[in-house]
Design goal:
Elements (H helix, E strand, L loop, with lengths): L6 E12 L4 E10 L2 E6 L5 E6 L3 E5 L1 E6 L13 H4 L5 E7 L7 H9 L5 E7 L22 H10 L4 E8 L1 H7 L2 H13 L3 E5 L15 H11 L5 E3 L19 H7 L3 E3 L8 H9 L35 E2 L2 E2 L3 H10 L4 H7 L2 H6 L17 E14 L5 E15 L2 E4 L14
Parallel strand pairs: 1-4, 1-5, 6-7, 7-8, 8-9, 9-10, 10-11, 11-12
Antiparallel strand pairs: 1-2, 2-3, 5-15, 13-14, 15-16, 16-17
Helix pairs in contact: 3-5
The structure holds zinc ion (ZN).
The site of zinc ion has 5 residues, from loops.
């Protein structure tokens, strides 16, 4: 056959997992004109074959919790393609970086020039996530404009998938639930989910307006949330999260899940293996897995205007170098005993559902953009360490090899990727 080839690229012989289509097995993936053309065994008629035997071939990974408003949010915002396609991730969801005031810049300077697909949960605060929410007083109810945020979300409906807010102890002591109520109000008008951060972030006020019981932060917040809203950072070691002051899973969590709320790991700096074990052992499995990487937990040089110290200055250290990736967060889930069959949906179809994009991304369905992540699936002996210095042994390590974004190939060569030989044996 020398006429027109059926495919531009065929990924040959990888272990394909596409939970959205219940596909799991060794087969080929054919790509034509930047779209998925076929997932079958033994595809023939391609301009180019790529041998991916022994590797995992997954729908393009989606990081539900990214911070990529680079050059605007201070040291907080990473280079989108460094966290994205050059780390094997095809879609990034910025959590609360851009706001109604700054969304036009986010579109022009971040979304449009990036090879990675970039979406956002728009900040409920007019200033957005500047400097990693460094100045608490900017996040008061007076700093929220529901009308302007709703308008910005409507004007950018192709990118805005929800609204970001915080159920944070310091915030509760200053303003109670007021900001979250405004976020829910805006989300009701937009029919979008709200994504709520749990765990301490901006510190506690010297003279609190409200006396706050840490165990009520979660339960009071859940009361005002709706099915589809997202609770983030279930594995935080900070008070006011999923593990209560008695060291047990907060009883509200199961009721929240019954009510249809969703959980996002939102790994970040405060991820704790001990907390993760408690939550997982209690039978609670998060729906999505965001890496929550930013300039305070990875090796990125300070940007002009950045505070010299930040409460989130906690690096993921491997041999003295702060590195992280969504794939590494997946490896940590495996080390905690979550199966690969449960981890893959967290970064593919479950995340697509959270974004209201089921069947559009996070799947290898015929006709969708050819966003595909190819991972190495190594066996050996590694030790993972969290920021509380708790260690977990791992015998399996997932690392990105390359990804295709709309059929275009990007090597996983980001400087922040953890190097397997630097992870302690
Ligand atoms: Zn974050």
């Amino acid at each position: 056959m020398d006429g027109k080839k059926l495919y531009d690229i065929v990924l040959k012989g990888g272990r394909v997992i596409d939970p959205a289509q219940s596909i799991e097995g060794i087969c080929d993936v054919g790509i034509k004109d930047g779209k998925i053309a076929a997932v079958k065994t033994d595809l023939k008629g391609s301009k180019k074959n790529i041998d991916v035997r022994g590797k995992l071939v997954l729908p393009g990974l989606i990081d539900s919790h990214a911070h990529v408003f680079q050059h605007v949010s201070g040291r907080f915002g990473l280079d989108p393609d460094m966290a994205g396609v050059r780390s094997g991730v095809t879609t990034l969801v910025d959590q609360g970086g851009p706001s109604c005031m700054t969304f036009p810049a986010f579109r022009k300077y971040i979304v449009e020039p990036s090879a990675s697909r970039v979406l956002a949960f728009i900040s409920i605060y007019v200033v957005g996530g500047l400097e990693g929410h460094y100045y608490p007083y900017l996040y008061a109810p007076e700093g929220v404009d529901v009308k302007a945020t709703v308008r910005a979300a409507r004007e950018n409906a192709d990118l805005v998938r929800g609204i970001k807010s915080h159920a944070e102890i310091g915030g509760f002591e200053r303003w109670g639930l007021d900001v979250m109520k405004l976020a829910v109000k805006a989300c009701n008008e937009l029919d979008l989910p709200v994504y709520i951060h749990f765990g301490q972030l901006w510190g506690r006020p010297k003279t609190p307006k409200y006396k706050v019981d840490v165990d009520k932060v979660l339960s009071d917040t859940v009361k005002i949330l709706r099915p589809g809203d997202i609770l983030a950072h279930p594995f935080t070691r900070h008070p006011g999260g999923f593990v209560n002051s008695k060291g047990k899973l907060h009883p509200i969590v199961k009721r929240a899940l019954d009510k249809g709320l969703k959980l996002d790991v939102g790994h970040g700096s405060h991820f704790s293996f001990d907390m993760a074990k408690k939550v997982l052992d209690a039978g609670v499995l998060p729906h999505t897995l965001g890496a929550d990487m930013h300039g305070y937990n990875t090796s990125v040089l300070p940007q002009p205007g950045t505070p010299t110290e930040h409460p989130d200055d906690e690096m993921h250290l491997f041999a003295g170098r702060a590195q992280f990736s969504l794939c590494h967060a997946m490896s940590e889930m495996l080390a905690l005993g979550v199966s690969l069959e449960d981890v893959v949906p967290m970064v593919t179809n479950n995340c697509a559902a959270m974004l209201g994009m089921e069947g559009e991304i996070g799947t290898l369905k015929k006709g969708v953009d050819a966003d595909i992540s190819v991972l190495n699936d190594e066996r050996g002996s590694w030790t993972f360490v969290d920021n509380s210095k708790t260690e977990v042994h791992a015998d399996r390590l997932l690392t990105p090899e390359f990804c295709l974004r709309k059929g275009e190939r990007f090597e996983a060569d980001a400087s922040i990727l953890p190097q397997p030989d630097l992870i302690a044996a």
